[in-house]
Structure prediction request, 587 residues.
Amino acid sequence: MSTEILSAINGEVFGVWFLIGAALVFWMQAGFAMVEAGFTRAKNTGNILMKNLMDFCIGTVTFILIGFSLLLGEDIVGLIGKPGFDIFTNYAGFDWSNFVFNLVFCATTATIVSGAMAERTKFLSYCIYSAIISALIYPIEAHWIWGGGWLSQIGFHDFAGSCAIHMVGGISAIIGAKILGPRIGKFEFDENNKLKKVNAFPGHNLPIGALGVFILWLGWYGFNGAACTSVEQLGSVFLTTTVAPAIATVVCMVFTWVKYGKPDVSMSLNASLAGLVAITAPCDVTDAFGAIVIGAVAGLLVCFGVWFLDYKLCIDDPVGAVAVHCLNGIWGTLAVGLFATNTAPGYSIADGNGNELVGLFYGGGFKLLGLQFAGFAAVAAWTAVTITLAFLFIKAVIGLRVTEEEEIIGLDATEHGLPSAYAGFSIMDISNTMTMEINENTSLGSDYYDTASDAKKAAAVPVVDMLPSSGISKVVIIAKLSRYDVLKKAINKLGVTGMTVTQVMGCGVQKGAGERYRGVEMDMTLQPKVKVEVVVSKIPVASVIEAAKKALYTGHIGDGKIFVYPVEKVVKIRTGEEDFDALQDVE
Prediction:
């Protein structure tokens, strides 16, 4: 009697955990939104948030109408579930938990595509193909794997979706990005149409991107663990779901550090997700060693994937969705055939005759690997054919891509009438001002103003005098932000107490710093600058210029620049005083 009670309690506990896991997977939509928004440009942020919201909402509608029954309806010859409306006709006996659980997985498949096609896709077109994925493409292949279809009958294993979700989303992403074409300016070709240059489009908000990765990692414990039926199995799945992405991230960090000279932030974030994708299929059947190897390969594979798409296929994937989800979805699916071990708690892989199967590296031969390869090939073929037809149909009927003008302006404004997703904010990164590396090519060979020749002073801080002044002059000084305090004190010491200060971004010949973003060298890095404007009449312009040059000089080209303009009229609003009189309390 006590055993039956404990079994009932255990069943209730894991039933609740099943729904908590579904909620964690739903929360991953926020993670996908943050990663995609952070890795792209600010002018498209609202569009990206809207797409990630509608993935789930449109997916819910289509899943109610057709998707759920195709996935988990009565099996028809191992290919599809029987369409039906039990959610309306038999609600009392409906499997509510399974509906919610499979719905959140379905939405994940659709949202993967968004990242690879970001910044140039029509919103209406996106809504249509998202609905097609949720209504037909995902439910049918997922039925093969999880709904009693033919792949589940022969022993194919995909515990949480490396194949059914991530590879399907990744294949859809690469086909969509290819048909759509790259963002304007991403690739440059020579007269023979050979790739000449890949241009970097840095993400506008890496903190948001990193937050998205951490949200996704947290959600992945529900993604991989929700279907577990024992504490032992759940603990093992949590372990492998932690080890693989951690190893992948370390491997990617080391690789980019060695290859590019510095560890790449965005690639390391991608690597965390790559490790999570790769461990998703084998998370319940592998051990710690298998998770380490799977993660290490994933960390290298994501680097290769980003490079291969950029430099060989010339396919523009702004967030690395193909490298993360497609390549590592395939890798995770095949890894089951290599690393599956019956020492994992709750191990249950068997062929159609009930014979236990284990991975190649654990003495099981090639049978399980062959089954995994067959499953990968079948699902990949189904996805490639159906999504290609869907994209081509949409392109022919309403078009996939926005106009050039709309892309340049940004989809927030043109697709949603949103001036900016950051209305009220002024975004400028000045945190690296004091530690910025100086381009050695700009050195003039003299670090001190007093010992520098007139030629070196002129080269470091050139002066542009527009026209002879008639008595009142405006002096505009462009300088490094790190020299502002020194400059301000020098100007004040002359007796100039009124100035206008603006933070700006810019660069000159110092742009050639060779910085890289995701392995692509950037043409220029805009540096934080400060623009100081003063108007003088009594104080000699030459004194202001000399004080500014001395304050700004560090012995490098790019220390600053000074412009002098004649001022025709000055009016003080409060008193009505004009010209010379209007300036007397600010000099």
Summary: The two ends are 95 Å apart (CA to CA). The CA atoms of residues 117 and 265 lie 22 Å apart. The chain has a mean pLDDT of 88. Residues 2-38 form the longest helix (37 residues).
